[in-house]
């Protein structure tokens, strides 16, 4: 068997590239960053591991404006020490190897440092002159202790795919990047518990687990670049939360380092453990503000051998809700994802990437559903019945079902490719919101009307806004309101904020469902949290990080 | 002539995105609980047949055919959802002796005679055994012209013009019906099975048959001695810097 043709993958990719390439990247065990060169990618991630220059992205990183210039209201805190040559020497001596330190102090290495300074959205850019890449927990501990003793501010950084500007410095904070902590420590095939370094790339972890017939309980579009430590630090939600639940439940233990160098060794592999306050929960979603996560233990479910993916076109948002209810009802335990994209999103995806959409004609809304189960026959029967039902009752207007893994990957790319495609015109204002499902899409319409009324939306360069679109994890009542723009523009921002936050507050929603607070949402936390809650949070921050060196200017 | 009577033989194989594993006894590849799909080249064949019809070439019938285990039904339904008019399934149980290319070709000859097909579109190979013989053998048995590795097919009346992929370029050939075409990757981009068409496909006729019905002696002529996996890729090593890389390359004798 063996066979050159089974690995026609590559051949097929060249032959049918629009159809075959994204999915191959998705499904086959590859470790490269998923979006490398996959589209025209003006939003090419500023991957730290891209040595020197940022690959692929047409506009150089330099084009990203400094956060300090865009947001002059944020001032450098003078309590922090300015970095000196002596500090740099200390770190070089400590970390030894060349690849562990990037600095533009003794030489001009601004090119090398740029990818660590600017974020994935090309919205934020810091002035860091030093990047440290420790390889062990011990090194992290020594770095932090030294920084804490010397009042040097730091930014923990994983894959730098965060969407709220939390992973890059604002001023001259030292970047502590975890990419060299990339070892899988252990995996127990009976319990399904994985223990690994924080810097392991999500896709690498998942491919490792696939070999063992298990699955990482989180999946998201950035899987080829983001790190599991970064995922935990942001409490990322992603595409399968509906099925596997949140990291607050799946992460069983954490190893982390506090700013004073204390190593918290809480890498437990216990499903149940009611012995006191559950401190690790503070690090899940803590966004690097109280310590650096260096390792995690996480419960990984069995991988489902039977997976199906279908993609529908629907007449209205009402219909999308009906489809969701029908899916929950009829597919119940095998439903593993339910994603919604409005028609505008899909049109822009097509415009930005040239990707041919799976359905003929245009539909106002699209949904993608995935089922995962253990028995192909059982699942297929359920799915068939469901599909028949939603067609007959005209809940969906049209749809396709993937017949093989290649098509599954293709259909998924209609959802996963959205984030990147929307950056195509220059930038995106992103709002990641929890809202009651029934009201979810009204916000998108309201925002579009608002921007249109003041003349900011248009087809040519004189209008900053391309469109206002909505998509998201409908199964989790999580809307991504995105406003793709040709340039970041204060006028647009003024129309959007605090309008969007006020809207969400009125519905008792959350202004940050899964992306976190970072620098973007910090000023607005009050729209979703009471004064008492914020006070308690500040107490925790002060308790663990009394000097405030951890990821300053962000979070709360 | 009343129109093309197209026969498209298709095969159920391990999904091409799945990495096959050899069983412990090293006699075969593990198939239990492994995702199976239509051989990708066969998807191209079905698609091309349907496109001929859509291009208003007179097509009176597209018949999808598969010999294989009961589950081959699924891919026949897919073929019908893509646009084939009906299906024929010769059930070969997993426990029965498996067909070899010559056996399949002989079987197909009988099907062609029975169905009065005048165009057979096959995949150039199936990705499980990679034999790439069936189309050619069938052409031999029928004594029909054949165009292999098609990347473009044009039909005008009785004349079929096929652009073939050959090493470093293309070759264009022409023949009169009836004929055999085998498909290559650049031929087209197979469509998705749409929901309405999946529903319709359920109602299209699917005939079940056995090898006996065709009075075929398809006893295997080959014996599989051993199946092994390719040697695993050796893990890479990371070097700290350029000097480290140079000394490593020297060590490996690459410099
Ligand atoms: C294309 C795309 C799709 C996405 N889809 C989703 C999605 O579906 N759901 C979702 O929830 N999010 C999504 N995200 C955002 C998501 O938060 C991040 O992709 C991911 O979780 C961050 O991981 P990272 O390693 O890149 O962290 P970074 O971006 O490097 O860091 C994020 C934050 O965590 C901190 N941090 C990082 N590592 C550590 C550590 N080891 N210890 C302490 N703090 C640390 C940083 O300081 C920063 O505040 C998406 C992003 C992209 C670009």
UniProtKB/TrEMBL annotation, chain A:
Enzyme Commission number(s) from the entry = 1.1.99.39
Give the protein's recorded name: D-2-hydroxyglutarate dehydrogenase, mitochondrial
Entry's family note:
Belongs to the FAD-binding oxidoreductase/transferase type 4 family.
Catalytic activity, reaction form = (R)-malate + A = oxaloacetate + AH2; (R)-lactate + 2 Fe(III)-[cytochrome c] = 2 Fe(II)-[cytochrome c] + pyruvate + 2 H(+)
Name the domain of life this protein comes from.
Eukaryota
Return the InterPro entries for the record.
FAD-bd_oxidored_4_C, FAD-bd_PCMH, FAD-bd_PCMH-like_sf, FAD-bd_PCMH_sub1, FAD-bd_PCMH_sub2, FAD-linked_Oxase-like_C, FAD-oxidored/transferase_4, Oxid_FAD_bind_N
Protein task: Catalyzes the oxidation of D-2-hydroxyglutarate (D-2-HG) to alpha-ketoglutarate. Also catalyzes the oxidation of other D-2-hydroxyacids, such as D-malate (D-MAL) and D-lactate (D-LAC). Exhibits high activities towards D-2-HG and D-MAL but a very weak activity towards D-LAC.
- The FAD-binding PCMH-type domain extends over 124-303
Cofactor(s) needed: FAD
So where does this one cross the membrane?
none
One GO molecular-function entry: (R)-2-hydroxyglutarate dehydrogenase activity
Q: Name one GO biological process term.
A: malate metabolic process
Disordered: annotated segments: 34-59
UniProtKB/TrEMBL annotation, chain B:
List the GO terms this entry assigns under cellular component, sorted alphabetically: mitochondrial matrix
Subcellular location(s): the record lists: Mitochondrion matrix
Among Pfam families, the record links this protein to: ETF
GO BP: amino acid catabolic process; fatty acid beta-oxidation using acyl-CoA dehydrogenase
Question: Which domain of life, per UniProt?
Answer: Eukaryota
Cofactor requirement: AMP; FAD
Q: Which UniProt keywords apply?
A: Electron transport, Mitochondrion, Transport
Q: Which GO terms describe its molecular function?
A: electron transfer activity
Where is the Electron transfer flavoprotein alpha/beta-subunit N-terminal domain positioned along the sequence? 26-218
Q: Tell me the cofactor note.
A: Binds 1 AMP per subunit. Binds 1 FAD per dimer.
Chain coiled-coil ranges:
none
State the family it belongs to.
Belongs to the ETF beta-subunit/FixA family.
Role: The electron transfer flavoprotein serves as a specific electron acceptor for several dehydrogenases, including five acyl-CoA dehydrogenases, glutaryl-CoA and sarcosine dehydrogenase. It transfers the electrons to the main mitochondrial respiratory chain via ETF-ubiquinone oxidoreductase (ETF dehydrogenase).
Q: How does it assemble?
A: Heterodimer of an alpha and a beta subunit.
- Annotated protein name in UniProt: Probable electron transfer flavoprotein subunit beta
Q: What is the species of this protein?
A: Trematosphaeria pertusa
């Amino acid at each position: 068997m063996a066979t050159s043709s089974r690995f026609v993958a590559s051949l097929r990719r060249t032959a049918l590239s629009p159809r075959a390439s994204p999915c191959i990247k998705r499904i086959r065990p590859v470790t490269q960053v998923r979006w490398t060169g996959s589209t025209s990618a003006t939003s090419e991630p500023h991957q730290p591991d891209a040595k020197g220059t940022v690959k692929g992205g047409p506009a150089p990183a330099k084009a990203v404006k400094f956060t300090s210039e865009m947001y002059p209201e944020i001032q450098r805190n003078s309590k922090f020490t300015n970095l000196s040559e002596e500090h740099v020497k200390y770190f070089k001596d400590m970390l030894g190897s060349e690849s562990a330190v990037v600095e533009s102090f003794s030489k001009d290495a601004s090119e090398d440092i740029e990818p660590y300074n600017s974020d994935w959205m090309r919205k934020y850019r810091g002035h860091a002159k030093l990047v440290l890449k420790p390889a062990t927990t011990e090194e992290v501990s020594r770095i932090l202790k030294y920084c804490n003793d010397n009042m040097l501010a730091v930014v923990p950084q994983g894959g730098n795919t965060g969407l709220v500007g939390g992973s890059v410095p604002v001023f001259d904070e030292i970047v502590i990047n975890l990419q060299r902590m990339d070892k899988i420590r252990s995996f127990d095939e009976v319990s399904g518990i994985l223990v690994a370094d924080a810097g392991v790339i999500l896709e690498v972890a998942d491919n490792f687990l696939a070999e063992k017939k298990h699955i990482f309980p989180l999946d998201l579009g950035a899987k080829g670049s983001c790190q599991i430590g970064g995922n935990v630090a942001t409490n990322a939600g992603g595409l399968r939360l509906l099925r596997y639940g949140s990291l607050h439940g799946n992460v069983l233990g954490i190893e982390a380092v506090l700013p004073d160098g204390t190593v918290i060794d809480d890498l437990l592999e216990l499903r149940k453990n009611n012995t006191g306050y559950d401190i690790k929960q503070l690090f899940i979603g803590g966004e690097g503000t109280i310590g650096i996560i260096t390792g995690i233990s996480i419960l990984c479910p069995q991988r489902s051998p039977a997976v199906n993916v279908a993609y529908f076109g629907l007449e209205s948002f009402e219909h999308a809700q009906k489809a969701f209810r029908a899916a929950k009802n009829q597919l119940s335990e095998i439903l593993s994802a339910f994603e919604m994209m409005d028609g505008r999103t899909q049109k822009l995806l097509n415009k930005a990437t040239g990707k041919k959409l799976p359905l003929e004609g245009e539909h106002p809304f699209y949904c993608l559903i995935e089922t995962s189960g253990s028995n192909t026959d059982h699942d297929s029967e359920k799915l068939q019945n469901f599909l028949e039902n939603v067609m007959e009752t005209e809940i969906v207007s049209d749809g396709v079902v993937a017949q093989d893994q290649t098509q599954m990957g293709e259909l998924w790319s209609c959802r996963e490719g959205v984030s990147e495609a929307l950056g195509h015109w220059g930038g995106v204002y992103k709002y990641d919101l929890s809202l009651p499902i029934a009201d979810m899409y009204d916000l998108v319409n309201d925002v579009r009307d608002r921007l249109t009324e003041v003349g900011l939306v248009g087809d040519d360069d004189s209008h900053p806004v391309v469109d206002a679109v909505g998509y998201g994890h409908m199964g989790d009542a999580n809307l991504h309101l995105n406003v793709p723009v040709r340039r970041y523009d204060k006028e647009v921002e003024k129309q959007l904020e605090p309008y969007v936050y006020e809207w969400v507050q009125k519905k008792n929603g959350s202004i940050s469902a899964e992306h976190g607070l970072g620098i973007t949402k910090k000023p607005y936390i009050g729209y979703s949290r009471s004064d008492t809650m914020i006070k308690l949070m500040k107490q925790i921050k002060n308790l663990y990080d009394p000097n405030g060196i951890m990821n300053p200017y962000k979070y709360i | 002539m009343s129109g093309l009577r197209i026969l498209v033989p298709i095969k159920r194989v391990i999904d091409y995105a799945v990495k096959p594993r050899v069983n412990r006894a090293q006699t075969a590849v593990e198939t239990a609980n492994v995702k199976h799909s239509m051989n990708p080249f066969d998807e191209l064949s079905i698609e091309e047949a349907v496109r001929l019809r859509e291009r208003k070439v007179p097509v009176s019938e597209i018949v999808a055919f598969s010999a294989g285990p009961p589950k081959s039904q699924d891919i026949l339904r897919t073929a019908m959802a893509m646009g084939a008019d009906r299906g024929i399934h010769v059930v070969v149980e997993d426990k029965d002796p498996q067909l070899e290319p010559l056996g399949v070709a002989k079987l197909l000859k009988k099907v062609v005679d029975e169905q009065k097909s005048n165009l057979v579109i096959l995949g150039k190979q199936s990705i499980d055994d990679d034999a790439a013989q069936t189309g050619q053998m069938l052409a031999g048995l029928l004594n029909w012209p054949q165009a292999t590795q098609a990347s473009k097919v044009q039909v005008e009346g009785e004349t079929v013009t096929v652009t073939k992929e050959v090493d470093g370029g293309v070759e264009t050939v022409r023949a009169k019906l009836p004929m055999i075409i085998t498909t290559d990757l650049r031929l087209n981009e197979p469509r998705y099975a749409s929901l309405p068409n999946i529903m319709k496909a359920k109602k299209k006729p699917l005939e079940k048959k056995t090898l006996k019905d065709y009075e075929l002696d398809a006893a295997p002529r080959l014996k599989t001695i051993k199946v092994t996996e390719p040697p695993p890729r050796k893990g890479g090593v990371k070097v700290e810097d350029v000097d480290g890389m140079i000394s490593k390359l020297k060590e490996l004798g690459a410099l």
